[in-house]
Description:
By secondary structure, this protein is mainly β. It is built from no helices and eleven strands.
Amino acid sequence: QVQLVESGGGLVQPGGSLRLSCVASGSISGSRMGWYRQAPGNERESVASITNSGATNYANSVKGRFTISRDNAKNTVYLQMNSLKPEDTAVYSCNAQFLIEIYWGKGTLVTVSS
């Protein structure tokens, strides 16, 4: 069982930046890590993912603005979010996919507003 805890959310003005962190209670080595978000009234959507070898994938809506990275030694995955827009407002959750198990964090709220 792996527990995931996100942090780094908050209130930021449009155009601002935030860095989210997701710390796992156990090793994330070998896993595919992802960030997802869910805005009020919307379905959860994938934002970015990174394989154990470092290959990344992004939603079209965040390409060029968000960067996902991981540090297996720290059991942590990050999401650097730049040029934030009001439509980025959502609860952001991280996800760890192993061969059989999938784990989710509870999320951190990001609000982009002036």
